[in-house]
Amino acid sequence: MSRYPFARINLTALQHNLQQVRYYAPHSKIMSVIKADAYGHGVIEIAKALEQTDAFAVARLKEALILRQHGFKQPITIFEGVSTIEEWQLAAEYDLTLVLHQQQHLDYLLTAKLNKPLPFIWLMLETGMHRLGLAEQHIRQIIDQFTGRTDLVDEIGLMSHFANSDLLNDTRNQQQIMVMQRLAETTGLPVCMANSAAIISLPQSHYQWVRPGLMLYGASPFAYKTGAQLGLKPVMQLVSKLIATQQLKAGDEVGYGGQWTADQSMRMGVVSIGYGDGYSRHLSNAGKVIIRGKEVPVIGRVSMDTVCVNLDACPQAQLEDEVVIWGTDALAVEWLAEKAGTIPYELLCCVTPRVNREYLHG
């Protein structure tokens, strides 16, 4: 059975990137973000490799329960929180940490009869993102409601999220920090605010906790830099193989819609990768791959299972040759994301389950 396409997941690179987080934020605890199947890398193996982290973070209750069912004991934060009495009770049963960002969620908690208190609740402060969060005065009222309620929660903290931390020198970042700083100083509660971009570029936002996501996987949160330029190593190398070649003549059209036409005699290759594997259709006539160390362009539309490439730059290419889709210094996922008009988060998260993952140390 063919192993292609597959993703080489370098766990040593992952651990290197965790050390880089410590380099950037040496005085903060680390909450490693492993939501969305660890950004497409495979959450169980990634969590095992990040066992030295102080806590994990996921988006939804189901993700947290999967980690608990696999025996992970670390604190696990659920960013979206929970929204029913039964889910509050389940979260308490499994010692999960919740983010509270809606009054209705609090109402459910105050109604729920918990068998034991939650270990921690993060109160989401609205500082300027205008997505999830509550106003400062509302947060103060909730803090008062939690006072003395040892039956509900052991500890609380403050959380917020940057809207523009990937934009250096954007004044909105400082405005968000000021809103958080005011509340942090008057309450004395621990704070978690810095994502990957803020960990690197906004040290004043580190506080007691940071929560790296994309940088753990070796990609840059900034449009103008690669992960390598930030001292990071790519964790995922997406790989496939050449499954067919054809000799084209001038005027031959390639792929659905005939959107690419050969202007001269040339050799074309077909690679076993497509949007069914997570390779973006927006890379039609825009992407490139590496065969035998040579960069070759994607031609024609990306199909569900295949892409076509121009082999002029690699005339020695043969059937079964390995093809690098992304994950090297020469072909970073950040470059492909730019060509696809998206961000590296999306490309990584969209790698589908039918792509095998192979986990390597080193």
TrEMBL record:
Catalytic residue list: 35 (proton acceptor), 256 (proton acceptor)
Binding residues for substrate: 131, 304
Stored Pfam families: Ala_racemase_C (PF00842), Ala_racemase_N (PF01168)
Catalytic activity: L-alanine = D-alanine
Domain (Alanine racemase C-terminal) ranges: 235-360
GO molecular function: alanine racemase activity; pyridoxal phosphate binding
GO biological process, one term: D-alanine biosynthetic process
GO CC annotations on file: cytosol
Enzyme Commission (EC) number: 5.1.1.1
PROSITE patterns: ALANINE_RACEMASE
UniProt key word Amino-acid biosynthesis: no
Pathway as given in its UniProt record: Amino-acid biosynthesis; D-alanine biosynthesis; D-alanine from L-alanine: step 1/1
Cofactor: pyridoxal 5'-phosphate
NCBIfam families in the record: alr
Alphabetical list of PANTHER family matching this protein: ALANINE RACEMASE, ALANINE RACEMASE, CATABOLIC-RELATED
Purpose: Catalyzes the interconversion of L-alanine and D-alanine. May also act on other amino acids.
Protein name as annotated: Alanine racemase
